[in-house]
């Protein structure tokens, strides 16, 4: 059994969680300790006790530790990628790519630890100097989702540590294995005891305690809108700093002047890769009427060529849905779409393979009305809806007609429309002739409206959440 990591040592939990591969339900991936109230108390106390020493640590110490973590993750990316594919269901190439991303994130923030900037300003008063510096927030609680089980913990933990915070990481119950592997690497990196702690366990125990405990100075959360709203309420009640990344119902606009191959490739990758289980997935394909029939026909042809199967099998394009609950949700929305009158042009049925897994044929609905329930609510599966648009102006209106605002994309050969869309799309990230899913680790990540709350994640922008500013005055 894999234990919890608290205050520099390994601990049993209150219970044990057994995980199974969504590609083969008979395969046990691992047994992991699950924290109860006692372990939560130990971890929060440890992080609080270690906070003062770590906030005053040298930046070279932080940089060396993070670089060492990134190096080992990268050296073991084939092994850890296999674990990720078995645990979450991403295809092996996608899983190895995610592990490589986690390694790059740690190495990026190793260098950011050496670049914590401040300002020295002249005061309006003669003989007075002003210094503006950044300081760690303190104890940071990280509540991570299941769909990126090593990249998201990395892109939250790495900046938190780089900027001098202590960390308590709660991975999703479905996928504790990758976070445990990351914690085991971190345990040998030279970080002092209590600086990093791993608490696998249920949200109602671990997540709730982190959100409500006054000794936890900040919460960084990625997950559903409902859970994020509860985290926000708990943090607001005690005036804790909070960062939320939640849902998306992302549009990909295809104009009549688009390169059809480019548009289809962007739509297929954005809508269906990673089994559609990405907050940045393209779930609304908004297509100008002139190219609508050709686009739908090309999408169906491409979908016919995709292979769905075991995540570790060579040549597979789409792995299984992560678990039964998510599969049931996908199938429920597929039925809702049918009942609403949307036309199912391809897929949408559960598939049988050599192993018993949660395999779903990617679904494409066409002739969808933007007011339909399935076009407005996040499904989080391999389901995309094609919505016709009269022209660019109508397409832009449809793209912005959502409560979410994480990412938006457009396929066009027109510089005029691409430039206008980048300015007027109501989303935190905009893609031109690219899938809406797929972002770089060294630039800001985040959205608007119901998708995000608080400071941006990733890149140098992460300093805004994981530090506070202090202004100091010195007289002569």
UniProtKB/TrEMBL annotation:
Q: Which residues form the active site?
A: 245
Q: Name one GO molecular function term.
A: oxidoreductase activity, acting on the aldehyde or oxo group of donors, NAD or NADP as acceptor
Q: Which UniProt keywords apply?
A: Oxidoreductase
- Any idea where the Aldehyde dehydrogenase domain is? 19-471
- For this UniProt entry, which residues form the secretion signal? none
According to the record, the segments passing through the membrane are none
Similarity-based family: Belongs to the aldehyde dehydrogenase family.
Q: Which PANTHER family match?
A: ALDEHYDE DEHYDROGENASE-RELATED
Protein name (Swiss-Prot/TrEMBL) = Aldehyde dehydrogenase (NAD+)
